[in-house]
Amino acid sequence: MNPSALEALIEALRCLPGIGPKSAQRIAYHLLQRDRKGAQRLGDSLLHALSSIRHCQRCNTFSENDICERCASPRRDQALLCIVETPVDMNMMEQTLAYQGLYYVLMGRISPLDGVGPRELGLEQLLARVLDGVVSEVILATNYTNEGEATAHYLTAMLRPKGINVTRIARGVPVGGELEYVDSGTLAQALRERKSFQG
Amino acid sequence: MNPSALEALIEALRCLPGIGPKSAQRIAYHLLQRDRKGAQRLGDSLLHALSSIRHCQRCNTFSENDICERCASPRRDQALLCIVETPVDMNMMEQTLAYQGLYYVLMGRISPLDGVGPRELGLEQLLARVLDGVVSEVILATNYTNEGEATAHYLTAMLRPKGINVTRIARGVPVGGELEYVDSGTLAQALRERKSFQG
Ligand SMILES: [Zn+2]
Ligand SMILES: [Zn+2]
């Protein structure tokens, strides 16, 4: 019942995560009726991003250049490489202002249920990056989820035999956290990983 | 922290209803990392729809032509004009197979809270359509919501003085509906609007 260009738009909107046919139709009507300027900007910026965004050849994050600004910076510690799952995680690390090294962004995690193994993650590229002769410590900052943990274990098994010092960010009670509100798994782990107190 | 083409995409995605900054970032990453083909199709179809979709000059629905197929059909009853709020509502009416007249799609409803009054709805165009000399009955099929009802009342006050026969689709217990599950407002209305039984 809809014109074909409208049907095509409704169908195309379904590439957005979590958008079913009803929502897609609602969005298409909204854009055509109420926000043509926004729709134009979205169409333009999609096509522009697709043509200009690639992956940094060193850290694998999204970049408009072959090497991203951060990897090209002479002020970062080239001997430290922090491995994160996503660009968002990298931004979270940066916001701590506690890290001056470089990054490698996996753009995912090992997840057998989703069909993502070491090959899908392109870990050969990571291995080549780590073995550049300058990196001396790899800091695993994957999530403390089952999949993030599995990824950390896999990476450790891959990198340690190459003589790389592999570390993992600490796990425990959050800063400012009250025991009453911390889940028991975290608390048990914090107990097992207790350290000599620098009182 | 993101490349500018990516930031522009994230910003542009916020024209989608209900998408905040976090969701926009998640969607942008998803498209660039996992579904570039879908993103390309979405960009293309947005721009194509914007350039090819306009409003039918007779019924105001989305159309690729000045006059949509339905309005151009010689098989529809030109004397009946059904007024609906949206193209979806028009499709719902069509699916009943109980109506052979034409339509006018308001593309909205009178809603003072949203700043939508008679002017924003472009009701002069509707008035001109109704007064074509052929339409003899206008059937109001706006929703039975407060806003749909207000719209129906406004249209009646506008059209009846022009000598147009204005009717409203009936309200009552849904076909197949059990009294036990019908809300009391509907039931009260069905009681008030009871009719002589053709038993
Ligand atoms: Zn980089
Ligand atoms: Zn039409």
TrEMBL record, chains A, B:
Zinc finger (C4-type): 56-71
SUPFAM superfamilies for this protein: Recombination protein RecR
Keyword Plastid carried by entry: no
Alphabetical keyword list: DNA damage, DNA recombination, DNA repair, Metal-binding, Zinc, Zinc-finger
An individual GO BP term: DNA recombination
GO molecular function annotation: DNA binding; zinc ion binding
UniProt domain Toprim: residue ranges: 79-174
HAMAP family assigned: RecR (MF_00017)
Family affiliation: Belongs to the RecR family.
Function per UniProt: May play a role in DNA repair. It seems to be involved in an RecBC-independent recombinational process of DNA repair. It may act with RecF and RecO.
Name of this protein: Recombination protein RecR
Annotated source species: Dechloromonas denitrificans
Lineage: Bacteria, Pseudomonadati, Pseudomonadota, Betaproteobacteria, Rhodocyclales
